[in-house]
Amino acid sequence: MLGLAVQLAGGGTPVAFALAGAVALLTSYSYAKLSVTFPSRGGTVEFLNQTFGSGLVTGALNVLLWISYVVMLSLYAHAFGSYGASFFAPAWGGWVRHALISAPIVVLAGLNALGSGAVGEAEEWIVGLKLAILLTFVGVGVWTVEPGRLAVSQWSPAVRLAAGGMIIFLAYEGFELIANTARDVRSPRRVLPAAYYASVSFVVVLYVLVSLVTVGNLGIGQITAAKDYALAVAARPFMGHAGFILIAAAAMLSTGSAINATLYGAARVSFIIAKDGDLPEVLEEKVWKRPIVGLLLTALIALAVANLFDLSSISVMGSAGFLLIFAAVNAAGALLHKRTGGKWPVAAAGAVACLAALGALIWQTARDDPLRLLVLAAMAALALLIEGGYPLASGRQIKPSHPRER
Fold first, then answer.
1. Which element (helix H / strand E) includes 276?
2. What are phi and psi of 278, to 5 degrees?
3. 128: how many CB neighbours lie within 10 A of its CB?
4. What are the distances in angstroms from CA 128 to CA 200, 208, 261?
5. How far is CA 341 from CA 43, 49, 166, 182, 406, in A?
6. Contacts of 5 (CB under 8 A, 6+ apart)
7. From 1.20.1740.10, 3.40.50.2000, 3.50.50.60, 3.40.50.80, which CATH number describes the 2-394 domain?
8. Measured between alpha carbons, how far is 29 from 66 in angstroms, rounded to an integer?
9. Which residues pair with 10 in a beta bridge?
10. How far apart are CA 320 and CA 323, in angstroms?
């Protein structure tokens, strides 16, 4: 998603990443407090239910969360396919990219369905390897940065720069998955806050440095022209073709592990939403003690979105969806501050920041490509339609959930 940010923010891309990171860091505060108070494998779904109770808006937000997971999977698969296709000659055509887009979803959904413990164990090694490669990229590339490329004169106007950060906000979303592990963590009151703050802070610094090295070594036009695999192209000036291959391989490892983690979260979210009566009963069914039906349905829809939509549309959909959901979670943190022991002004500031970021994203999208707003509207309408129409059409009763005392 780096190429999309550069396209909007220009030389101010590191600032755009820092702005998006600040929104994520504020939101991680509410998540840390709520995760400790309401530990559940439902994560975000549980926080919204406990705060606002059952209702159309809460149910629609929960369904929107699941749809946003689908969008995330599509984005990661799109990136995997784009970096993989960069190893092939253009004459091979788009079919290679589409095959590579589909392959990780199919393979990793199959492995998750089988419950392969090896996949989970491999995550630590994959993360370690990709971080080593990215830190090498930063460590070598920072010495060849041309300061003029990062000058304020090269920055986009303020709102466009902010929109550049928000269109790639999805790149920060991963910390939300920590909430789904709250029931399985030892010493949650100590471990969970540390996990949120350390992971988000580290990623903010890493993203800012990576974007600084990229923009500082490569012209804006070159990055935009190769926006689907911009990071690999950015390695060429100071690491040569070997650097291109190394970074492209790291990107494929990174997106592959992200697909694996998101499939884990999405399957459980769809299971919990179905148990609440907002999705078909079939998603409640477990096979081999795992919510495999939800996993396979999520993977199937993600395959369609990844192959039919372009990168920019997917990013706008996903980032807008999570900014709206995170605004609601921050509102939950402010409303339940007495129970969580949190500071309501911090949570309220997170809600305002998310809504302001969403506004910047929508404003810029309306200016650049108004038709994409129809995609956003369709995503929101779909969540409302599923929440409002499915129980009525199926005769299912939404299981009541009452807000906790504040």
1. none
2. -95, -15
3. 10
4. 16, 19, 15
5. 18, 19, 30, 17, 11
6. 13, 16, 17, 164, 165, 167, 168, 211
7. 1.20.1740.10
8. 22
9. 155
10. 5
- Identify the CA nearest to 39 among candidates 172, 191, 173: 191
Top pLDDT among 36 and 271 is at 36
pLDDT over threshold 60, residue 10: yes
pLDDT tens figures, 180-190? 888 888 888 99
Token pair of 56 as six digits: 């159309």
Q: What is the mean pLDDT of residues 280-286?
A: 55
Q: Are 61 and 278 in contact, with CB atoms under 8 Å apart?
A: no
Q: What is the pLDDT of residues 223-258, one digit of tens each?
A: 888 877 888 888 888 888 888 999 888 888 888 888
Distance of CA 356 to the CA centre of its chain: 18
**What average pLDDT does the structure give for the chain?**
84
* pLDDT tens-place string over residues 300-334: 889 998 888 877 778 888 888 899 999 999 999 99
Q: Are 54 and 400 in contact (CB under 8 A)?
A: yes
Bridge partners, 155 (sequence order): 10
- The answer for residues whose C-beta is within 8 angstroms of residue 400's C-beta and 6 or more apart is 53, 54
CB atoms < 10 A from the CB of 194, how many?
Answer: 11
Q: Are 35 and 189 in contact (CB under 8 A)?
A: no
